[in-house]
Write a structure and sequence with these properties.
CATH topology of the largest domain in chain A: Rossmann fold
Structural class of chain A: alpha/beta
Number of domains of chain B: 1
Largest sheet of chain B: none
Strand content of chain A: 25-35%
Number of domains of chain A: 2
CATH class of the largest domain in chain A: Alpha Beta
Largest interface: A-B, 54 and 41 residues
Strand content of chain B: under 5%
Oligomer: heterodimer
Largest sheet of chain A: 6 strands, mixed
CATH superfamily of the largest domain in chain A: P-loop containing nucleotide triphosphate hydrolases
CATH architecture of the largest domain in chain A: 3-Layer(aba) Sandwich
Shape of chain B: elongated
Number of strands of chain B: 0
Structural class of chain B: mainly alpha
Order of helices and strands of chain B: HHHHHHHHHHH
Order of helices and strands of chain A: EEEHEEHEHHHEHEHEEHEHEEHEHH
Radius of gyration of chain A: 23 Å
Strand order of the largest sheet of chain A: 6-7-8-3-9-10
Helix content of chain A: 25-40%
Helix content of chain B: over 70%
Shape of chain A: elongated
Number of helices of chain B: 11
Number of strands of chain A: 14
Bound molecules: adenosine-5'-triphosphate, magnesium ion
Number of helices of chain A: 12
Distance between the termini of chain A: 44 Å
């Protein structure tokens, strides 16, 4: 039997009238990865802050490797590493100085802290930049440095709050590879994300969180199986055509739409096959689609299927705009 | 994956927790080192800390000084203790602004997630201010000497006066630590600090005798900490009965520390 690296039961936290967490249970076995997936304001950061001792829950309890975070916060801190939603590195220090400082504050001893700093710079591809002040780092470099600071003391339990939000696709893939390596070394990881794709790639299990509650749990495969593996989108030139097309596509999957732009959205299990069938059907009915797309389901699709409403209008777009402004 | 489906942690490992005064001091020194590095990396901070007080010495010595009559005759001797106090007072803003910035940039959260001593972030900050003040005040003494500042009570009395000054600066750093933690963003911390410090430094005996002010202002000027500290340093450095003035200055500084250290530490624990 494996033991739990993270165990939270009934976490509740309110900010005044806003209930950020409304009874959240999380259990992460040692050496596994939990993806906490949810839209803006779902309560992801609040959960991470409670688990990392930064915030006291109003109710409920949480343990890191059996250590209660409220009763023994200092002991819990020596078991965790945290990279928050926004990179928390000192801009006026060099990358190396940031790492050495974190090492010394983790009581590694000066020479050990320096050695560890060089090791991490090397591992995260920051050796060349290590001597420069962080002010001159790109967003991706900051994220990597932030992550390496969290790893200084080799914590057995790691928390990453939206580690790749705001990164370009290339930096995101790079960071994913680094995270996969860490997990390969046996680190337990709790990762929050707004991207189903990210949770899918990195997490063993996913907990979908919305308005402070976990609304679904399972492996990525299980969630997708519930949802349908692919989304087919068919757009039409006008409402009348779209209305007629509804009858044609309905049998093939879970239908939403038509929306304002006369678009139908169908979650299906076998995208390419269904696409061909839909096209045949539309052709036979003499309905010409204006747009066509097959894509992986997004967080929004998961939400649509779980709650019957979108995660938040334009949630991902808004999130990205916020991050790049920050 | 329900919480009850899996067993609780089978082994509850004893986790070593580092505590004790040596750990607090060690962590504070690491944080202080970081803040002193900032001084060398941020030209604005360095200018604020060094060039500005030197400009004040020159300004008052050569521009305003001729028009200000002081007891004892030598304005530069009267002026220097005033500039010392003004310098450490405005220098203390750095603690407030720096902490507010650390809060808004998430660095405080990072520190709070580390198994470091909780009080070390504030202690390190204020310690860095103290070290910086030693450097800045040394510079000011030298600049003062160059423009005619002379101590008449010997080196020991000067050092005693400067110790009193540094203690006062240290106390003010804790005051502004609280201001920084309460405002939580750099601009607001700065904005809150100036209306506090202007009356304290200028409506004091730092640059002109309190007796030259209108009556209502005298009441304030004669009964506030900057005047107390400046008068005590003057008495120590230039001669005259110093005992009760020194006690008064000490009382102000220690009183500020007794009130503001616990308030700042408490606020730090709550922040977030
Ligand atoms: N310090 C705070 N004061 C008041 N309300 C807060 C505070 N922090 C969070 N909230 C509110 O609590 C809710 C949950 O916030 P939280 O930051 O945990 O969400 P999140 O899932 O991390 O969102 P995001 O994806 O935008 O980071 C939101 O409604 C938010 O507005
Ligand atoms: Mg968040």
């Amino acid at each position: 039997m494996t033991s739990l690296a993270i165990n939270a039961e009934g976490l509740v936290k309110a900010y005044g009238p806003v209930v950020a967490l409304d009874g959240v249970d999380l259990a992460v076995p040692e050496g596994t990865v939990l993806g906490l997936l949810g839209p803006n304001g779902a309560g992801k950061t609040t959960a991470v802050r409670i688990l990392t001792t930064l915030l006291r829950p109003d109710a409920g309890r949480a343990e890191i490797a059996g250590v209660d975070v409220v009763a023994h916060p200092q002991a819990a801190r020596s078991l965790i590493g945290l990279a928050g939603q926004y990179a928390a590195v000192d801009e006026l220090l060099t990358g190396r100085e940031n790492l050495v400082m974190a090492g010394r504050l983790n009581h590694l001893g000066t020479s050990c802290a320096k050695q560890r700093a060089d090791e991490l710079l090397d591992r995260f591809g920051l050796s060349d930049a290590g001597g420069r002040t962080v002010k001159a780092y790109s967003g991706g470099m900051r994220r990597r440095l932030d992550l390496s600071v969290a790893l200084v003391a080799r914590p057995p339990v790691l928390f990453l709050d939206e580690p790749t939000t705001g990164l370009d696709p290339r930096s995101r893939t790079d960071l994913w590879e680094v995270i996969e390596e860490l997990v390969g070394d046996g680190t337990t990881l709790l990762l929050t994300t707004q991207y189903l794709e990210e949770a899918d790639r990195l997490a063993d299990r996913i907990a979908v969180i919305d308005a402070g509650r976990v609304i679904a749990r399972g492996t990525a495969a299980e969630l997708k199986a519930d949802l349908g593996a692919t989304v087919v989108e068919v757009g039409f030139g006008d409402a009348a055509t779209a209305g007629l097309a509804v009858e044609v596509v309905r049998p093939y999957g879970t239908l939403t739409g038509p929306d304002d732009s006369h678009r139908l959205q169908l979650t299906v299990n076998d995208g390419p096959h269904v696409l061909v069938q839909i096209l045949r059907g539309l052709d036979a009915a003499n309905l010409a689609p204006a747009r066509l797309a097959v894509r992986e389901p997004s967080l929004n699709d998961v939400f649509l299927s779980l709650t019957g409403r979108p995660a938040e209008p334009g949630a991902d777009l808004v999130a990205d705009a916020n991050r790049s402004a920050a | 994956m329900s919480a009850t489906a899996l067993p609780r942690a089978a082994v509850t490992r004893p986790v070593p927790v580092h505590t004790g005064p040596r750990v607090v001091l060690g962590d504070a020194v690491v944080v202080a080192g970081r803040n002193l590095r900032h001084l060398t990396r941020n030209p604005q901070l360095l200018v604020f800390a060094t060039i500005q007080p030197v400009m004040f010495v020159l300004l008052f010595r050569y521009v305003f000084g001729g028009a200000i009559a002081v007891p004892g005759g030598s304005y530069v001797n009267y002026l220097m203790p005033g500039v010392f106090a003004q310098t450490v007072a405005f220098g203390a803003i750095a603690t407030g602004v720096g902490l507010a910035e650390d809060l808004s940039k998430g660095l405080i959260d990072r520190f709070r997630s580390l198994p470091m001593a909780r009080s070390a972030v504030l202690a390190g900050r204020t310690l860095a201010d103290l070290v910086r003040n030693v450097g800045v005040v040394t510079l000011l003494v030298l600049v003062g000497m160059a423009v005619g500042f002379r101590v008449s009570n010997g080196v020991l009395a000067l050092l005693g006066g400067l110790a009193l000054l540094l203690l006062f600066g240290f106390a003010l750093s804790w005051v502004f630590a609280l201001v920084g933690l309460l405002t939580a963003d750099a601009e607001s911390a700065q904005a809150a600090a100036f209306p506090l410090l202007f009356p304290l430094t200028f409506a004091s005996s730092a640059f002109v005798p309190v007796q030259s002010m209108p009556g209502w202002l005298q009441t304030f000027a004669a009964n506030q900490p900057v005047t107390a500290v400046v008068d005590a340093i003057r008495a120590l450095v230039l001669g005259g009965p110093a005992g009760s003035l020194v006690l008064k200055a000490l009382a102000w500084s220690l009183g500020l520390l007794v009130i503001f250290v616990p308030l700042a530490v408490r606020r730090y624990r709550q922040s977030g």
